[in-house]
Every structure is written in C-alpha cells, then in structure tokens.
Amino acid sequence: MEQFDAIVIGAGHNGLTAAAVLAGKGKKVLVLERSTSLGGMMATGMLNGVQLPRLAHLLYNLNPAVVRDLGLKLDAKPMPTVALSEDGRHVVMKGAEARFADGTAHPDAAAFATLYQRLVRFGTLLGQLAQAAPPDLSGSLSLAQAGELGALARLGLRLRLMGKAEMREFLRIVLSNAQDLILDELADGPLAGALAADAVRGAWAGPSAPGTVFSLIYRLAQGGGAALPAGGMVAVISAFAKAAEVRGATIRTGAAVQRIVIEGDRVTGVELADGTRVSAATVLSTAGAAQSMMLAGHESYDIEAVRRLRNFRTKGTAAKVNLVLSGAPEFNGLSREQASGRLLIAPSVRAVERAFNPVKYGEITQMPIIEAVVPTLTAPDASGKHVVSAVVQYVPYAPDGGWTGTARQIVIDQVVGALDRFAPGLAGMVTASELLTPGDIESETGAPGGHWHHGEMSFDQLMSVRPANGLAHYGFGPAGLYLAGAAAHPGGDVTGAPGRNAALKALKEMAA
C-alpha cells in the first residue's frame, strides 16, 4: 500500500493550493482528482473544436497570500464591468468609477463612487478575517481560540477607529437588503442593476432579501475585482498545478475516492473507486461538506453535526451557456476594448428581483441575469471562430417538467436573444451551443446542488458557521480530516484561501 503524509481530494484551485502549501513544508502529498482533467469549476472544455472555459471564466478575488505563498505568476489585469443598456447608453465601471461607454459623465457617478468606496472600506475590515481560520465558537475557550477571538476584537477596534458615523453606518446596513441600500443612493437602471447582480451572484436570493448587503461587502472583502487572465482559465489552473508539483506533490487524475478510511476515530487513508487503498494520516477534502461527510461515513459524526449539515443551503441557481460564433460579435456603442470586458445584462435592481421570483417555483425566468465574456476578442482562436461564455443567473435545478431538450433550448435562446439585442447579428453567427444546468454542474464537478460556491454565501453560512458551527474550523470530524474547499471559510470564488488555510491548520496539528 502506498504511503503519503497527506492526501488531497480534488484538483481544483483549492486542492492544488493545499497541496502546494503542504508539499512546500516537506510533506509527501498526493492529490486525487476524479476527472481526467484538472481544474474542477475552472476546467477548460471543447465545443465544436474550439477551446473555451467550461464553467468559471473569470478570475475573481484571488487571495494575495495565496499568490505570495505559491509564487504564482499570472498575467491577469483587472477588467472593466460593462452594464449593457437597452437605450445604447452602456455604463463602464472600473472600481469606484462609472462613466457612459462614450466617455460622458454618468449622473450618478459621484453617488456610486461614494457608495462603492464605503462598501470597500467595510469590506477591507472583513477581508482580514479571510487570511486565517475563523474564530472557533464551539466548546471551551483554549489559548488558540483566545488568539482567534482576538482577530474579532481587532476588527471591532478598527471599526471604532473609523469613527462613530462610519461604525453606525456599518451596523445600519450590514444585515439589510441590497435593493434598499442601492436605491437609496442611485436611480434604478443598469448601474444600480449591476451592483445588485453582484450582491446576489450565485445566490438563492433576490436583492430584496435581508443580508444581501453583507454578501456584497463580503465579496468586496476578498478583493471584489474580476480579471481575464492571459491564456484563459487553463493558464490559471496550470499555474496552481505547477506550484504543487515543483514542491514535490503528486497529482493523479481519473482517481475517484469512494471512501475516506477511518479507524479508531482517526483518518488512515482513502479507498479509490477501483478498490485501491492509499495510506495517509491526514486527508484534506475539497468536496462539498455533505459529500465529505458521506465519504468519511455518517457514523463518524454525532447526530447534531449531521443535522446541521443537512440545513446547510446548497441550491444552485447559476447555469452556464457556451456559444461558438463564426465571427466576432460587434456590440453597438462599445469599442472592441470595452466589448472585451465583463458584460452584464441586469437592466435594473427590480429586474434582478423579478428574475429571481420564478426560480422559487421551479419555473424558468423569462429575463435571466447574464454575465458574459468574449475571451477570443483578446486571445483569438486559431480557427478564427469566437467564443461567448455566459453565466446565467436564476436557472432552476429541477424545473417543472424536467430539463427536456425543449427546456434547455429555451434558456440557450434566451441568452442568444439577449446578446443579439446588443450585438445585432450575433444570433446568426452561432455555430454551436451548450447549456450546463445546476444539475449538470453537480454531476460534472460534484458541486453540491450545482452551487458554484458549494453553499450560500450568506451571513448565516459564513465565517464561524461555515459550513456549520462545530465544523467551521477546517478540522472536519475524525482526527486528521480537514475540509479545504469552497464549503469552508472564507467560501467561494477563486481565492485559494480555503485550501491555504486548511493546509496551515493541518500542518499545525501534524507538528503537535
């Protein structure tokens, strides 16, 4: 039987980050990936002979500590967000700056800048909590827990140092809804809609839901920006894999783990789908929380832990539509550089809210919220064809009647039709298309419920209660087992922080 110091389940960016951190400290590490390719949600696919991002298409919120620790060299510059408008007056946003695409001033530019900068200030405070394990609020207070709680105390002190007015504003808005906050400051339209769409990205919620301001602040705490890396997402995952391998980690694809072996309430290794066993006293799982528990066996957990995880919300509402075009789309009112940005179709805050309502009843919304990129405008494919990669918000996991061929085509046609309104002629250039529903995403990647973040990024499912109180400190039940994926603190997006933090926790306990 092969023997390793640590086994990492999953070769997405979190798993590879964990492997690199462990191997960098001299540990013998094996990464096991069930798919035949690396990347997880960041994997690259082929459609009609053209390479494209299968799911994730942008680099969101990559953690600076991960970049530093892994020595990542990525050519990924921040990209503008372009809020498309039916009247042709598209809004280009670069951080706190908002202008019309033709360069003229937006009437809400000053109010937007003030609101955005305020949210970033609040987010900066929360961002400090992403660099380490969240405070452990279960059990008695140990010396280590006292140090972790000190991080919360420092957060409170920094908040007070911002002044009474800022502190009161933070407390006033932090658990409120994004719709009210945004419409208190901005006229409803594409600019406001773009901010609302970011507040509920991937969520089972509309912008009127309580706590959506916290979700927006929390995302800004992780950096908030999006980038389209040179070489695409394949270059990003290749950089993570290289960081792990140069430090000595072994990566195996096509190796599905069917069981985490537990003996005497501690990890002793894993068993693969073909019956092969690999020995290790430490296992880090980047699968979802419930899936990781199933791999270890429910008998390894008390009833309360099982109950809490059953209540962890993982309903995915984001689908993916990939299009191959025979030529380059031309967006009315946008330069080629602007069209190469992050394109958002979110006409208003109220439109985002209306788009969410049907999914609650298993219906397909008529006006989905769309985030699209055309990566081939900056990195042309050798074939001369172009790619549109679109994340479609508010698509039900299981619509009434199921995902028939007709239902799938409805969503594809909605996306093509929406884009064609802004880039006339695009519909006639589509040579191939595909839809990945939340169910498809779950089947392909293992993401629970097809949720891109392995669970809701809401106030009651973050920090010390992600994925549940008592299981939020990376240690996941049996001794030697750690949760290292998006279901762990600080959550989803391409941060690498869950993998890094879990690996650091494991190293500390391996040395004890």
Automatic annotation (TrEMBL):
InterPro entries registered for this protein in UniProt: Amino_oxidase (IPR002937), FAD/NAD-bd_sf (IPR036188)
MF (Gene Ontology): oxidoreductase activity
Pfam family name, one: Amino_oxidase
SUPFAM superfamilies: FAD/NAD(P)-binding domain (SSF51905)
Residue ranges of every copy of the Amine oxidase domain listed in the record: 15-290
PANTHER family, A to Z: PHYTOENE DEHYDROGENASE (PTHR10668), PYRIDINE NUCLEOTIDE-DISULFIDE OXIDOREDUCTASE DOMAIN-CONTAINING PROTEIN 2 (PTHR10668:SF103)
Task performed by this protein: Probable oxidoreductase that may play a role as regulator of mitochondrial function.
Assembly and oligomerization: Interacts with COX5B; this interaction may contribute to localize PYROXD2 to the inner face of the inner mitochondrial membrane.
Protein name: Pyridine nucleotide-disulfide oxidoreductase domain-containing protein 2
Organism the protein comes from: Ruegeria sp. PrR005
Classification of source organism: Bacteria, Pseudomonadati, Pseudomonadota, Alphaproteobacteria, Rhodobacterales
